[in-house]
Specification:
The chain is of the alpha+beta class and about 60 residues long. The chain has a domain of about 25 residues. It is built from 4 helices and 2 strands; from the N terminus they run αββααα. It has a two-stranded antiparallel ribbon. It is elongated and about 65 Å long.
């Protein structure tokens, strides 16, 4: 008996990042295969919580 069955299509990177295994076409695939090093690095930075921050543009009138 198969350990996994094919579910609904994944519709976002957020949803993809939450998966341990996915079906790539008709083959079960571990997340290590589909997560690039860059994507993994960004995810890890977000999870640390103090590495990556939003850049908020300052009002130009305040700078002068």
């Amino acid at each position: 008996m198969k350990k996994y069955s094919k579910g609904e299509p994944i519709k976002s990177l957020d949803e993809l990042a939450q998966q341990e295994f996915v079906y790539w076409w008709d083959k079960i695939t571990h997340k290590g295969w589909f997560m690039s090093w860059q994507f993994r690095m960004a995810r890890d930075a977000i999870q640390r919580g103090n590495v990556i921050f939003k850049a908020i543009k300052n009002n130009e009138t305040e700078e002068k």
